[in-house]
From TrEMBL:
<dbReference type="InterPro" id="IPR029066">
    <property type="entry name" value="PLP-binding_barrel"/>
</dbReference>
<feature type="modified residue" description="N6-(pyridoxal phosphate)lysine">
    <location>
        <position position="36"/>
    </location>
</feature>
<comment type="function">
    <text>Pyridoxal 5'-phosphate (PLP)-binding protein, which is involved in PLP homeostasis.</text>
</comment>
<protein>
    <recommendedName>
        <fullName>Pyridoxal phosphate homeostasis protein</fullName>
    </recommendedName>
</protein>
<dbReference type="InterPro" id="IPR001608">
    <property type="entry name" value="Ala_racemase_N"/>
</dbReference>
<comment type="similarity">
    <text>Belongs to the pyridoxal phosphate-binding protein YggS/PROSC family.</text>
</comment>
<feature type="domain" description="Alanine racemase N-terminal">
    <location>
        <begin position="25"/>
        <end position="230"/>
    </location>
</feature>
<keyword id="KW-0663">Pyridoxal phosphate</keyword>
<dbReference type="Pfam" id="PF01168">
    <property type="entry name" value="Ala_racemase_N"/>
</dbReference>
<dbReference type="GO" id="GO:0030170">
    <property type="term" value="F:pyridoxal phosphate binding"/>
</dbReference>
<dbReference type="InterPro" id="IPR011078">
    <property type="entry name" value="PyrdxlP_homeostasis"/>
</dbReference>
Length: 233
């Protein structure tokens, strides 16, 4: 077994245990394998171990891997990086999910450019929970208004919220940050009772997935624990 296959097993068991400890239904948390900077061969190894969903941050790099792996029909591609508006067409056409939508202009373009596809593009609204100047994401206060406008767009399906909380917080503060995102999703569901699609909280990474699952995460985005440390750019 390759070490990537071992790691898929280890992370999957961490997720199962955290799901059980949180009193949540088995299978309610999915693993998104974050493969940025990793070669296509690493993705192939993870896929052989049963991993289906992969997250990428850089469009050009992702498109090359999507092409190189087109023989694997069941791969599910998630875009999780910052989005420039001149890149939306390729994102709308090559991916199944986008976790990092943080403004209406981007959502409108993705919707227009998804037209003609068989399925809508699943999207999450990224929230800058700790209001860090260096980070993408809308403010928590803007979520209700943005969500209302995005829910009205065709060709994209608003699934929920995503965040990357400041990792240098205490465990208690991190927990409170994840809980804030969960509360924001509850409020959205209450305010938009017809929006059956709102079922997703994309939060938690290699170091904090247990805390995120306890707060209600449905996707955890894991890179390092699967593929090892990335070279710093
Ligand atoms: C890189 C990245 C991850 C994975 O982080 P790890 O700490 O390596 O697990 C998750 N989410 C986003 C948005 C990322 O850019």
């Amino acid at each position: 077994m390759s070490s990537i296959a071992d790691n898929v097993g280890t992370v999957t068991r961490r997720i199962q245990k955290a799901t059980l400890n949180a009193g949540r239904e088995a299978g309610s948390v999915r693993l998104l394998a974050v493969s940025k900077t990793r070669p296509a061969s690493d993705i192939r190894a993870a896929h052989e171990a049963g991993q289906i969903a992969f997250g990428e941050n850089y469009l050009q790099e992702a498109l090359e891997k999507i092409d190189a792996l087109s023989d694997l029909a069941d791969l599910e591609w998630h875009f999780i990086g910052p989005i420039q508006s001149n890149k939306t067409r390729q994102i709308a056409q090559a991916f199944h999910w986008v976790h990092s939508v943080d403004r209406l202009k981007i959502a409108r373009r993705l919707s227009e450019q998804r037209e003609g596809a068989e399925t809508p593009l699943n999207i999450c609204l990224q929230v800058n929970l700790n209001e860090e100047a260096s980070k993408a994401g809308c403010l928590l206060a803007d979520v209700p208004g943005l969500a209302r406008e995005i829910l009205a767009l065709p060709n994209i399906c608003l699934r929920g919220l995503m965040a990357i909380p400041d990792p240098d917080q205490s465990e208690a503060d991190l927990k409170a940050s994840f809980q804030k995102l969960a509360d924001a999703l509850d409020n959205l569901r209450r305010d938009n009772p017809d929006a059956q699609s709102l079922d997703t909280l994309s939060m938690g990474m290699s170091g904090d997935l247990e805390i995120a699952i306890d707060a209600g995460a449905t996707w955890v985005r894991v890179g390092t624990a699967l593929f090892g440390a990335r070279a710093s750019p």
